[in-house]
Amino acid sequence: MDFQPTEDQRDLRAGVRDLLAGRYGREALRASVDTGTAVDRDLWRELGEAGLFALRLPEAAGGVGLGLPEAVLVFEEAGRALLPGPLVATHLAAGLVPGAAAGTAVVTAFDLGGGLVTHLADADAVLGAAELPAGEPVRSVDPLTPLHRVASAGDVSPYRSVGALLTAALQVGSALRTVELAVRYAGEREQFGQPIGAFQAVKHLCAQMLVRAEVARTAVYAAAVMAEGAAESGEGAELGEGAESGEGAESGEVAAAKLLADEAAVRNARDCLQVHGGMGFTWEADVHLHLKRAWVRAEQWRTAAEAEELLAAELLGSLS
């Protein structure tokens, strides 16, 4: 298998990055934080028109007709831009919930434990539920990921593997972005007459961040390619098409990818804060937003504990 993106895939990634840079750059991000607007309906429709939600729908059904590897690249860019909203759930709902593919409907999911649902107040539907449940607002660590607690949660097991993989891609994008932020600040901030990036301790910190992010990115890409290959060969269920694939042949790769991506996003954000020093902890800096979003995503679809248990079970099975 070739895990390197093709020219078309690189063009897709570049196009999405340009779209998000023009439509949801830093000023738009900070405006969302200041106003508390987690879901911009106009932006959501633009994302739908760009094919983000219908990316894996067959062309005959009005979709783009691409696969998981392409979806991973797109969601990586969304994570890099800290694009808010239930992106994964709406993507999974394309073809199932009217308006989801076009971005005219916002769909969330029961992807958190403890009866918590993200973006419930902005949602038109909840994946795994026949109707919108009532919920009680709960304080969220991330200002752009509002939470509600509901009395009972629906079943999202048919979508867990793809949900975990695409959330891992979001985490990878965030981890790579915090590397960029740390390196840029280390080159600009001077201490003792030279950039702090000239000091060995800062160099090592940034190098560790890069290695962590690239290892996670490799795992996510590999999981996407292997899952796509299994689906095409008929060895596994078609991911995200209503059959649980979390316990299939690709489940170990997906679990490992989510585990590594969560660690990369959280630890890189923390290290980026350390590179920034006291400046990184201020509200005006963007680093804390990456850390808070990473904390929330680490609890979505598949937690670290769940991934570790799944990997341990697979390892035990291979030894028996």
How would you portray this structure in words?
The chain is mainly alpha-helical and 320 residues long. The protein is built from ten helices and seven strands. The strands form three sheets. It has a three-stranded antiparallel sheet, with no helix packed on it. A two-stranded parallel sheet has the order 1-3. A hairpin with an 8-residue loop joins strand 4 and strand 5. Helix 4 packs antiparallel against helix 7, helix 6 runs antiparallel to helix 9 and helix 8 packs across helix 10. It is globular, with a radius of gyration of 19 Å. 48% of the residues are buried. About 5% of the residues have low confidence.
Blueprint of the fold:
Elements: H1 7-23, H2 26-35, H3 41-49, H4 68-80, H5 87-93, E1 107-109, E2 116-118, E3 125-127, E4 135-138, E5 147-150, H6 160-188, E6 190-191, E7 194-195, H7 200-233, H8 251-276, H9 287-297, H10 304-319
Parallel strand pairs: 1-3
Antiparallel strand pairs: 2-5, 4-5, 6-7
Helix pairs in contact: 1-4, 4-6, 4-7, 6-7, 6-8, 6-9, 7-8, 8-9, 8-10
